[in-house]
Specification:
The protein is mainly alpha-helical and 165 residues long. The protein folds into two domains: 48 residues, no CATH class; 95 residues, no CATH class. Helix content is 73%, strand content 0%. The protein is built from seven helices and no strands. Helix 1 packs across helix 2. The radius of gyration is 44 Å and the shape is elongated. The model has no long low-confidence stretch (mean pLDDT 83).
């Protein structure tokens, strides 16, 4: 683009100062080259203004947004586990086990001799006493709840697999 075109575009767009606008107006009125170029650029500017911008349809935008939403929904949420918490729990349990071990070892009588044979008086509990009707009903109830939970999770996996394809 040459200097004439730049000046004329500034004049057409209205981005020049008032003094430049006045001087360019005089050049257009007095010079045939400026007049010819001014008419060409005015025609080109009118064509630019007449052109309609292409926009995607509403359905296209909706489909794109739905695709993005379903892709994000299918990704599992990732929980970040702080390693300091894990280490703290490990240290707590290690200290607890260590303290219990030290306590047990300090309570043992190390000087006692094993001259008396150890006899254990241990009898097994009678299991039929514990298996009454209420226990069996509770056991069956818990089994039914677990079976329904597993069946529901199976159906949900099947449904999500079917919608993903």
């Amino acid at each position: 683009m040459n200097a004439i075109e730049e000046k004329l575009w500034d004049y057409i767009d209205g981005t020049c100062s008032a003094e430049e606008r006045e001087s360019i107006g005089k050049l257009i009125a007095g010079d045939a080259v400026y007049q010819k170029k001014y008419r060409e650029l005015l025609a080109l500017n009118a064509e630019f203004l007449a052109v309609e911008l292409d926009e995607p349809s509403m359905a296209f935008t909706y489909n794109v947004m739905e695709t993005i939403r379903t892709e994000n929904a299918m990704q599992p949420l990732k929980a970040r586990v702080d390693k300091r918490i894990i280490r703290g729990l490990g240290v707590f349990f290690a200290l607890t086990i260590g303290i219990l071990l030290v306590y047990v070892l300090t309570q043992v009588n190390w000087s006692a001799e094993n001259t008396i044979p150890v006899q254990f008086d241990f009898t097994l509990p009678k299991i039929p006493d514990y298996l009454n009707g209420n226990v069996l009903m509770a056991f069956i109830f818990v089994d039914i709840i677990v079976a329904l939970y597993l069946f529901d999770s199976y159906l949900r996996k099947k449904l999500t697999h079917k919608t993903a394809h």
